[in-house]
Amino acid sequence: MGLLDVWASEGDIAEPELTKIKVGWEFAELPPHDYMNWIERNFGEKINHILANGISKWHQQNQYDEGSVVNHNKTVWFANNFNSNSEPSDANVNWTKIRDGAPTFFPAPSIIEPVNGGFIVNGNVALEVFDNHQFYLANPTEVVLSIAENEQFSGQILETVNYTGAGVYTINHQFIAGTVYYIRAFLQNEDYVGQKSEVVVASTAPADSDIATPTLTVEGAPNEVPESPLLSVSAFVDNNSETTYQFTQIQIIRDGITIFNVFEDISSNWEYTIPTGLLNPETEYTFRVRHIGEDNNASEFVEVVGVTLDVFAVPLMVVAHLESPYITAYEYDIASFTTITGGDAPDALPNTGNGVAFSPDGSLCVVAHRNSPNVTAYTVDGNSFTKIEGNDAPDALLDDSYGVAFSPDGSLCVVAHVNSPFVTAYTVDGNSFTKIEGSDAPDALPNTGYAVAFSPALPN
Q1: Choice among 104-108, 197-201, 328-332, 387-391 with the minimum mean pLDDT
Q2: Taking a C-beta distance cutoff of 8 angstroms, is the pair 210, 240 a contact?
Q3: What b/e sequence results for 130-146 when a residue is b if at least 16 CB atoms lie within 10 Å of its CB, and e otherwise?
Q4: Contact of 289 with 216, CB cutoff 8 Å
Q5: Is 105 helix (H, G, I), strand (E, B) or coil?
Q6: Nearest to 248 by CA among 194, 200, 211
């Protein structure tokens, strides 16, 4: 059987009714042979369509998501918007032409190493970029030069200059002393993006610097680094006192790959919080910091190796509702939700759940509801909820409650409810709630409280 041969290409076929296609085979049903031939031939023809065309042809009955690519009238098109029965053309805003006619592309240029023999000097750097090809294009063409401090080109710098066919192009970037750089290039215009060149590695001259190497502390290192650790860096020190400006470079490396590379202005002892979502659980990272000053002279890097915790906070959603169990928790991803069940699920409430709130760090969840105690708190560990009971639980309210909120720093929890004083506040210390009473409590409301909200500002 050849690659493009199709099952039942000369056999009996019969297309099932649409209702049958939607339902499929039912239990104990024996599919007719001509139905099965139709199904397998249909699949074979569609696979061969892709094999023969590379990019599938546009069809008026198909629905195309934004970003889809199709072949139509010997032209390749890119979908700008979701569309159906919208034929690609130059006048159709739903589509942008990628290529027409015979294949035309920009081959990868070659970079001749920096003209000063492989060492970059501080300031502008000239690179020779040769492509040795002739292009007859209506649109202006550019050379895009990518510069990074790692082979993966993460945190890269892009420099775009006019294409002149062949010659010398200038990178307008202030390079840092004593640093290895990776450089590559490609050609582009409005219609085409070319292939990337081989990577050239070049170094700046070693620093002749009196900038002191900083000290670095990473929260939780070496074995309990949290999801968003705090980095503490010592003050910038130049022993010659000649520096007129100063900043700090921060890098994070995983498995030899630089995944984070930023520069921050500094003045004295300094702290920086790594953004949430960058680090993975139970993974080893190298945190690197150095100070950089005038003429891009720099200190040596200081490194701290740390392993992250095995569990980070899990993205959760909780719904308070009318029917038992009156509260349902979900673990969610970008566009999907999974109900948390069994022993990890929150204990059922005594009656209708009316409001719910998480503490800012996600470690607590409080629900306002009907029936005593009218407010229930849970600790949250990963995707597991545990009801807080005894002296640590919030004091019961006299009647149904509706709204609940935590302060931005998580030190307070306030509940709006039916009976006087209609609003009750608790201090929060770890997993323990203490009712605020007397003159420190919020003044009573005139009637039922339904919702609570804190402003983002924190008290001094």
Answers
A1: 104-108
A2: yes
A3: ebeeebeeeeebebbbb
A4: yes
A5: coil
A6: 211
Interval 435-454: pLDDT, tens: 999 999 999 999 999 999 99
Residue 289 lies in a domain: yes
- Residues 328, 422, single domain; the answer is yes
Residues 93 and 117 in one domain: no
Backbone region of residue 436 per phi and psi (left: phi > 0; alpha: psi in -120 to 50; beta: other values):
beta
Do residues 40 and 139 both lie within one domain?
Answer: no
What single-letter amino acid sits at 344? Answer: D
Q: What is the CA radius of gyration of the chain?
A: 32
Give the β-pairing of 110-112 and 75-79.
Answer: unpaired
Find, among 323, 302, 320, 332, the residue nearest to 365 by Cα.
320
Is the distance from CB of 108 to CB of 196 less than 8 angstroms?
yes
For 165, the domain range is 110-204
Provide the CATH number for the domain around residue 408: 2.130.10.10
CATH number where 88 lies: 2.10.10
pTM of this prediction?
A: 0.45
Token pair of 411 as six digits: 């030190």
* Same domain flag for 133 and 60: no
Closest to 6 measured CA to CA, from 67, 53, 47: 47
Answer whether residue 447 is part of any domain: no
Q: Is residue 445 part of a domain?
A: no
Average pLDDT, the chain: 81
**Rounded to an integer, what distance in angstroms lies between the CA atom of residue 19 and that of residue 353?**
42
| Count of domains for the chain | 4
Identify the H or E element spanning 263. Answer: strand 257-265
